[in-house]
From TrEMBL:
It holds the Pfam family PqqD. The keyword Disulfide bond does not apply. Keywords: PQQ biosynthesis. GO terms for molecular function: quinone binding. GO terms for biological process: pyrroloquinoline quinone biosynthetic process. This is Coenzyme PQQ synthesis protein D. InterPro entries: PQQD, PqqD_bac, PqqD_sf. The gene is pqqD. Pathway: Cofactor biosynthesis; pyrroloquinoline quinone biosynthesis.
Length: 77
C-alpha cells in the first residue's frame, strides 16, 4: 500500500499511497530505508549510528517507528 521513493521535483524522499503523499525529512527516510524486514531495531539503530557517526539514537528511532507503524507505513513482523 505504501511505497517510499525519491521525488525529484521536491528533492526529497516521500511515501506514496493511494490517497496521497507524505514528505519525509532526511532522517525519517534513512530510518524507513532500513526497514527491510531483515533488521532488528537494534541493528537499525547500530547501522544509523555508524552511518551518521553518532550515538544515542534509540529513543528517536523508536518513536519514529511507532509513528510509522501507527500510520501503516511499516508493519510489524
Amino acid at each position: 500500500m505504501h511505497r517510499i521513493q525519491w521525488e525529484e521535483a521536491q528533492q526529497k524522499h516521500v511515501i506514496l499511497y493511494p490517497e496521497g503523499m507524505v514528505e519525509l525529512n532526511q532522517s525519517s527516510a534513512e530510518i524507513l530505508k532500513c526497514c527491510d524486514g531483515t533488521r532488528t531495531l537494534a541493528q537499525i539503530v547500530s547501522d544509523l549510528e555508524q552511518k551518521f557517526e553518532t550515538t544515542g539514537l534509540t529513543d528517536d528511532i523508536t518513536a519514529f517507528l511507532g509513528v510509522a507503524l501507527q500510520n501503516g507505513w511499516i508493519n510489524q513482523n
